[in-house]
Queue: 2 jobs
Job 1
Amino acid sequence: MTDAINLLVGLALGANLLALGSSRLPSIIRAAAIQGIVLGVIPLLLKPEFHWLVALVSIGTIAIKGFVIPALLLRALRAANIAREEHPLLGFIPSLLIGASATVGAVILAGHLPLLPEHRGLLLVPGALATLVSGLVLLVGRTKAISQVCGYLILENGIYLFGLLLIRGTPLIVEAGILLDLTVAIFVIGIIVDRIQREFDSLDTGKLTSLHE
Amino acid sequence: MNPGFTNHFLLPLLRGVLQIAILLLLAPLLPGIVNRVKAWVAGRRGPPLLQLYYDLGRLWNKGIVLSTAASPGHLVGPAIAWVAILGSAMLLPLGPGDALWSFKGDALLFLYLLALARFCTASAALETGSAFEGMGAAREVSFAVLSESALITAILALAVQTGSLSLTGMLAPVPNPSAGLLAAGLFTVLLAENCRVPFDDPNTHLELTMIHEVMVLDHSGPPLAVILHGAALKLLVFALLLAQAVLPLNHLSLLPATGCLLAAMLVITLLVGFAESLLARFAFRRVPLLLTTAFLFCLFALLTAWKGVS
Amino acid sequence: MSPGCLLSLALAAMVAGTCCAPRWTRLWLGCTVAATLLTLGAAISVLAGGPWEWHGAFPIGGELPHLRADGLSAFFLVLLSVIGLAGTVYSSEYWSPKKHPGSAYPGRVWWNLLLLFMGLVLLCSNGLHFLIGWELFTLCAYFLITRERHLPAVRRAGWLYLAASHASALCLFAFFAAIAARTGSWDLGPLRDHLELAPLFWLALIGFGLKAGLFPLHIWLPSAHANAPTHVSALLSGVAIKMGIYGLMRFSGWIPTPADAGWVVATLGVASAVLGVAFALGQHDLKRLLAYHSVENIGIILIGLGFAMMASRAGQPGWGRLAMAGALLHVWNHGLFKALLFLGAGSVLHATGTRRMSELGGLWRAMPWTAASFALGAVAISGLPPLNGFVSEWLVYLGLFGAVDGLGPGSAAAVPAAILLAVTGAMALACFVKVVGVVFLGTPRTLRAEKAVECGWFMRSPMLLLGGACILIGLAPALFWPALQSAIAAWEPGWAMDVAPAPLLSLGIWNVGFALAAALAATLLLRRVRRNGIARAGTWDCGFAAPTARMQYTAGSFAGIITEWFAWILQPSRHADKITHPFPSRAAFREHTPETVLEKVVEPSAGMVMALSSAMRRLQHGRLQFYILYLVFGLIALALLAFWGGAP
């Protein structure tokens, strides 16, 4: 079971790097979607016995993160009719290298953390840390609003991975609440994206600086 | 005859000569297979499988045209590069057979012999004073920085996995999860180092977009034959490295191991051919990104191997 | 003869040479060469026979002289004498009185004194005398660097060198004084049991690191090495910066080191190696480029030293010994090939009068000896087999791999170090393909390069000597193991191992076989080509009919891809005329890579200190009444302090 979970976390880490290294917006969205699906499966494996609430959250996560939000973003991309090539503040290779070193660093760091014995063999903690950093790099280093949304999504995935550690302790209802928040946030961002696009004919957040006093 | 002499001297010598002969003779077959695959995908008949052998024979008997700007190094460079590539091939084990020369740390010698070959071909290219060849040489040495970092990471991963510092010990992996990552990384490096699509296009000859082919524009006759044979040998070397880094051949006995190795070589060559037929060459600014990805594959293979050991 | 006897003879010959220098050229040359050879003999006898010590009876500066030659100092003494020998012979033609009437004779005096004082520093075992020797050799080097002081660039370089050297001397003063204060004597020796001395290592690291030119303390190095006369650059790059390495090795062996010293040294080493070569790629001045490669190679040496220190702390001699052997051998190797390259660059400068690579090209035709030896040095410095650079880098790698494999304390640091060492090697290769290609191959770019002539035998023979040494170490590395062994034993007594490690022997045999095979293949190919017939024609160049020499790839364009990756630190300033019309008439492109640490960090902060100081100067205006007022304020402040914060 541990191996399967580690494989899934590994895939999620791969999706991080995919998002960091790809220059086209659709591939970033797809990377975030793949990550969402992969992470959605993990709760099912984490608990040996079947529980209907876990299954519900799992299905909800996969549906929303893997399909609904990416579809929304792709639609926004089509509707806004923006250039699909990203012109980043931070180059692709530096962001890739930062992401990779964050992953390596997280694995090394996790070896020194006082974790519960049942979490020792799992990659959940390093995976969470690396995903958080990748999301932050995307948020900071990209200019297009859509890719920042993806960064936000990936950041949330990192938090979600951390949350899985506490799956025994926290009621899953909390996770469901986060999911709801996320969906609402994405809707709001979608509306803002639309407004920015109408106002500036571009989704480049750099243009927003012209709004300052 | 003294049996000790036979066992300790004559037999290894014979085996060595045989091994070198196999390497030298087999190498030009690989580009032939790649070209056949490309022709098959494109629906053409394509050149014969042994085309490179004919070409080499023809070139070996030709006279040369030497640029007035070039020094004797223009002719010596390819010879040294060829010896360096052959030397790196001699450090690799051949499936069931050990390497011809093996000692602790020869993996680094392997890496640096390939670098020596690069030094020679790149300087020989600069001999002519042509801007085209300067461009090719600049690209070759620059992209090599990235592919070399990927290669050393792969070697580190193998060293951690097997606890050995010689290629013979390293290329005897146990089946493990990092093999897939390593295979992906090494295959990308293979494509880059052998100037294959998507890094370079061995078919274009007069484009500004190429690396290796542009460096040999002014070579002709026997030196060109040596360069072409060296390139084929290098493809063989990388294919051997890739196959033996991933497949645990040392657990098999002689015949199955040989069979597996040959099959693996064929599969790798076919993959190169398909990659060449189905992919487009990347824009140059994307090449470093792809090579960085290869490096990361090797890095994560290293990390996995490390996690596996500790 | 005993080392002491040889050394005193060498001293006599050196003093005689110094006295002859202002007048008699032949005598000077003979004496100085004899002195270097005698020193070499003494060093070899120490390496083979064991340490030598001498206590003087008469105090100098209040301290009794104490000379000691153990394996480590003899190891560096060998380098000093070989490079000194090559430089002396070379300078007799290169900086001849005929070409430099005003400066050749005094230059020889300073040269001899520089050699003498460097030897003294290597032998001194008394802190005070070490400092005196250090200061004197620094000053001699200053006078040699500023031989052409009518040029503003040279004056500036000399000034920067002097400032950096004195910052270094300041740290060393503090270092030695603190040791003397703790131990109660200026006499030096193994002090490993004085654990309280450990933090002093940081002072030594800054002091010796400034001299060695490790990143980011290298700011003085490129300009000083580029502007000195070339034989001086060779000595500075080959030996003088190694005095910093000597200091680090000496005192990391003699005094205890802090727990994380090895990590810090190795990290600085990695930074120096990668950034040194990145800066070298951005240079267009031949000698400046070589100077940056010194930073790179110092980095490689420090990687080896840093890991050896970690191994020493962890008590793992197996790989630590290899790392240390690599660092030590690289000291020799870098001295040899860097001196060779500088002498080659000097010949180019001598023949063409320019160091700018964009004005050179095609020199192999006019200067085949120089071109061949420079190419040899380029292969060696790129760390390629079968030459010496590979052997030492390989030993460092073995140390790193040992650290990774042992999963010891260095394992986390060894992985990035090994990867970045490979990156450094590949970039050094790119840089030297660029240098050899742009300077010696292709066609001459200017009239100067076309009119060049080969240098004479006095300049050629040192290059051949150094090249021969590079080949010898490459082909028979095991031959030099006893010397390495002796130096390692002086550094860490427990690590002695008399027989050369088996892989080193295998590598030597491989290198010989490989060199023979390469020579054979080249001969066969050349014969085949001759038999088939050679037709000479212009470069085909894809059929372009009217190529000019200016169309060749330049140094900047060759390195462009890699320098672009490092633009964040290189900060190159570029100026290009925009091409607007379909048939542009004139266009120009200029590129300059600044010394980023100096121009973007040190100079602005120095400027801030200056501004602050001049603001403070307003307080000092010469009016007595205000000074009295200051005193009153000061007293009140002290009184308030005593009142509130006062003693219990």
Job 2
Amino acid sequence: MASAYDRHLLLAITVCLLAACASHPRPYGTPTPAIDMSTTAPNPDPRVGLRAGLMNAGEAAWNLRVLSQTPPSEKFAGVTNSDLAFTGHYVIQGNYNGYQVWDITDPSRPVLKTAYLCPASQSDVSVYKNLLFVSGEGLGGRIDCSTEGVKDTVSKVRLRGIRVFDISDITTPKYIGNVQTCRGSHTHTVVVDPKDTANAYVYISGSAPVRSPNELPGCVGVMPDQDSTTALFRIEVIKVPLAHPEQAAIVSSPRIFANLVAPPRHGPASADIAELAAAKAKGAFTATFPWGEEFVLPSRFVDRMLDSVVQARQGTGAPTAADSAALRAAIPVMIARMTAQRQGSNPNGPPPGPTQCHDITVYPAVGLAGGACEGYGMLLDIRDPAHPVRLDAASDSNFSYWHSATLNNDGTKLLFSDEWGGGGGPKCRATDPREWGADAIFTIADGKLHFQSYYKLPAPQTPQENCVAHNGSLIPIPGRDVMVQAWYQGGISVFDWTDAAHPREIAFFDRGPVDSTQMVGAGSWSAYWYNGVIVSSEIARGLDIFALQPSGFLSQNEIDAAKSVHFDEFNTQGQLRFVWPSTFALARAYVDQLERSHGLGPDRILAVRQALTSAERASVAGRQSALTQLAVQLEGDASGSSEATRVNTLAKTLRDLAAAAL
Amino acid sequence: MSLSPVARARADSARHPYTAADVSFMYHMIGHHAQAIVMAGWADSHRASPSVRTLAARIINAQRDEIAFMQQWLRNRLQPVPGETGMDMAMPMSGSHGDTLMPGMLTEAQMHQLDQARSADFDRSFLTFMIQHHHGAVVMVQNLFATYGAAQDEIVFKLASDINVDQTTEIARMERMLLTLQIQGAL
């Protein structure tokens, strides 16, 4: 018979098992936090006040579970880890000293396969089939990959551009060539033209100054009016013949910024737009700045100008409709003249466009790309990959530096991040504005960008933590736009931007600062979803891998559906379309979403779930008829639902499942 | 595995030791930034427009953080560290600049002119002078990169590159703001 003591012990163990108590005395239990099904964020936020430390910092996790934390190998320790690329069951992690290849077949135990020493910042990495591309921008990168740097200001051994490796055997990469560019390669983007299977294309973005023409002939870093061949105000497109990748070379340098006319702010809050519309409705005179922003002319100016028009025709009295029409026609001419005067008075000033892009994210399946280009976010048409064309550009007085872009899976939304301060500054303090160093979310309609909202890491960070919006990727939750994003020492944040005007955080992971006394650069450079897990490149601490946990915001069925999407290789800047195989998990994920959004009533939700359970258990023939019958019922439900599209998508999934049952 | 700041600095620089040019760049950029912060600090008291006040607030935030970063870099390498005002110019190797102003720095007369301006006049002067000031910072980065052995240290290269792109981007923004003022002023 158990004693009272034994019963207490048993109870404690049972509670621990249910709540998944970890043996680690950490404040918010990594690695095995309790499942939290609530729909409110933890309060107070456990990311505030975490203990400092390089490898022993305090940690906070919400709706994420740490699978592994792996420090860098010897040659890479203490040197910045950068971006990630994925191929098969490998993750390639860039580092300012080269790159490491990890086998993540078991994500709780990554195995180092290759540690390739070849210094160059930033070592941005991308894969395409058997090829690996690595960016080099810093002044110390060498063609021969040796580590002594390049002290000469002009040198034939300096590498600034793209290195190309053959990774047919990923344990022994072969360095097969490189392409030198004038500004080096800060980042790059691999683009595959569905119509051109013989080549791959690589867009080069370089943000460092242009190098000497004595080092690389043809490099000119002046304004276009001084030399039309300038390396500024363009991107470079490299063509890689797949049969002979060593012959990769620059094929075009499109000037996608030419004649840029975008507003100085996406600005116009809806109140401003309404005000302008109301003024115009009352017949106000407006003018338009060269970058497309319309504004109301002051009435005293209009009165003065109308008087002049009346005088000019030697008339008297009130201005006529013809006088008004004449003034309206004259206004754009006046604005153009003033613009020319301003530009003429400053011939050496830069044209009002950016000189380069920081990063370009392409989505070939929809023929679009998002360009994050200094003071602008751009929407590009890339149906001809060698010749991208600008469709629209947005600017924003809250955005310091347009850094990267992510399209949603439908290609109807575009999210830009602002790397205010370059990633080395602590821009997530409680005193930093929420609109600065954030993401800006746009919808895309008729080839134009429409601002909706900002998203910024909700937890304030210390002055010892560099923190700003950085690299992230979509998570293939069906029917929703969910993304994971790195915020340097702000950690990683998973958020839902299905409602573009109201993005919301649904999971996070964070560590305390490296050092409590001063800022030491660290944190997550990139956090990407790949084949069922979230992989994060921690600048100072190595490779982190996480699993999504079900929560009040995300069901296990939705996670299972996300895990059913598989890629053979993945570069985040080259978006691939998610296509979900028809599975019971996918159907149940849609049912969970309809329950959450009240798109179907509770009794229907219950009935559909019961029908799915019995269909799954049924024989092949029984399953097919049960699923078809359920699909027919749901198609009937759709018209009465506030979520008709989702109900029909569910019905379509069931019909596909029924067909697959045969 | 936790290194002291000085030990970490040594480790950072073991591969590509920093040079006198790197130290000089960090040292002088603190003074350069300090003047921008003084200029931007006048936006409220000199009745700048809301858009110029936003720009000024951003400049103060960004350049103050960069000053702290550069001070720490110098401190960790046991180099002389100017204060946040940048006015402590007791720099053993300041001969590279001597009595001449750093590129883009406002003269005393220009600072006085800006300090006297109010409202739209302040906006116009501020933008004009800040464009000049930012162009100077870009020139300082170009000079650094054109110096033997400089910016091999990844921290120096990254900071200098960030200053280059951030200020180039801000120059373009200020050019647009100036044009807006010009058009509105003519109405």
